[in-house]
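tool_log.txt
---
The assistant was asked to compare two proteins side by side. It first ran the structure predictor on the initial sequence, then on the second. Raw inputs and outputs are pasted verbatim so the downstream comparison step can read them without reformatting.
(1)
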Amino acid sequence: MDSRIWSRLPQRLIDRVIAFLPPPAFFRARAVCKRWSNTGPDNANGRPNCEGYLFDPYNVAWYILSFALIPPGFSPASSSGGLICWVSDEAGSKSLLLCNPLVGSLTPLPSTLRPRLFPSIGLTVTNSSIDIAVAGDDLISPYAVKNLTTESFHIDGGGFYSIWGTTSSLPRLCSLESGGMVYVEGKFYCMNDSPFSVLAYDIAANNWCKIQAPMRRFLRCPSLVESRGKLIMIAAVEKSKLNVPKSLRLWGLQSCGTMWVEIERMPQQLYIQFAEVEGGRGFNCVGSGEFIVIMIRGRGSDKALLFDFYRKRWVWIPPCAYVNGGGEGEGELHGFAYEPRLATPAVTGLLDQLTLPFQSFNG
């Protein structure tokens, strides 16, 4: 352990070693390393204009993520493989950024071809490819939007690029909710309104289909999440004219791709408490691994429930200490599933390739 030897290790080799650390170990290591402290999550030199808060369900702890490189006018839209996709807020052709907040990397993508307002965005990153889909909210005039089309982006380790050139039509009369999509086994999924159903986009086939939602006439605030490789729907069930207690239920989409099976139900006493806190304001859900988080909407709300599939346990998440001192305030937390990774070598190589052809493309 001679420091004269270890201090001379090439930085790229150190980064490869650090990439295999679990995120909590990385956050602890930041305390003794100026370089990591300055490039990753926020340091003691002051809060940036843009920051996020990472909840670790294993250690029940909150961390700050700094987004100092993100320019004004962008909002986070989706995440996969340690990368977060940011999209421009201004109406028109959308600009997208891929960011790894742990290492401070930022990769701009070419703008989408069609002008949109607040489209739904899906992102999936593997060791050898990056796929993005941007769907709906087409600007058909400066004053009107319709859910008409999808355009997709693809890059892989084999050198194949598709720069928003692949497009497809959305199902007729669809009313997909603006926001993020959920990726499961080659497809992006999102909720459709009036009445509730699920829209599925097959990336390889480049087409959409509609899946009927379970108990669609009695659902409130349905959300889709990915958990352990399965698509799961979470919603409150309210049958006002039938003698059935109100509840919050989870359904899993079966391998046939059209059938749902109820897999879990919130205990009734907890649901009564949850409904009182929620007060009809609604809720959003995110899923990652064996955990699902249910976040209550509304200004000043920092309440969220965590469900652990393995332990079959529901617990209230402690308030984030970095938001309004951890107490009731004016803000509202919005979240999405994010798996922090320092680096994935193959994906890092793809991102390095992005800068070369796309700089000339944009020029």
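(2)
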Amino acid sequence: MSKNAAGARTGSEQALALYQELRGTPGGSFDDAARRLHLTPAERDECRAELTALGLLEPAGDRTSAPAAVAPDVALLRLLRHERERLENRLAETSRAHTTLETLAGPFLRAGMEPGSEVEVEIVEDRARIRRELADLTDTVRSSVHSMLTGSVRREEMPRELERDRERTARGVRVQAMYSHRVGQVPEMAQHLAERAALGVEVRLSAVVPMNMVLADENFALLPTDPHDPGSAAILARGPGLVRSYRALYDYCWYAATPYGHFDPGGHGGDGLTEQQRAALRMLASGIKDEQVARNLGVSLRTVSRLISELMQELDAASRFEAGVKAARLGLLDGEPHEPHEPASP
């Protein structure tokens, strides 16, 4: 091979040629092989470093011994073993770091947080687990329970709910329960609500109940992941930092609701609109579509269309937009509360 041909190779090509030369002359000298390929001292040293890094060259044990070529399969196995050892060491370091972080995230970080600021959120799909959590509230609740329900209570659940009411109110726990007006018009539910009220439960009816929700002691919240699907998985939240937000929503709905026994479904609020029409008007003014209004009110799309027609006639409006403008001018969208109560004391 000519010197010019050898010099035309790149560094990696020179290293490969030198490796093949060494493999072809077992026991031969590394320097002799480099000279046969007409490599300069600098090129020779670069090839030595590259082959050593790849594990294809066994480093010389001392100054007198020459480096020897290593078979490719042996070099590959050594490289894999080296990488495995490096990975195992890295995993061991990560494990130690994780243990340290767990220690810091435990008592040390909690010691630096404000009292009662911890928040725990869990998605629960097991219906039996949800029922157990609600049943346990009877024993653990200290000051208050607030619930809202979009539909009726199942007949087999009514006796158990009354028993829980009896135990809670006997211990001085404030119990509030909110239902939709349409639920209150079901005879069986009307009897059940009357029995709850007789035990000391504060019951209110609302034109719109946005979702199922149970709150307790400003430290426990249970609500669905999908407000429009009561059968969806539940969100179980603990910690006042989050539960207070749900309590603010509950209080808003509570103050806008009517105490049980004081609602006249055919009555008007002094402005020619029923409570149901008021609720539909507020939702339409907020840009909510008819389908969503129907779900929130628990009525059909046909009923929503009828309500809109009645609203436009009552407000003497030729369009929805004009009805919204007139309602705003008349203050019908303010949503002032009915007989607000002070929130329960902690």
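---
observation on (2): Residues 120-259 form a domain with the Endonuclease; Chain A fold (CATH 3.30.870.10). Confidence is low (pLDDT under 50) at residues 1-7, 106-116, 263-270, 335-346.
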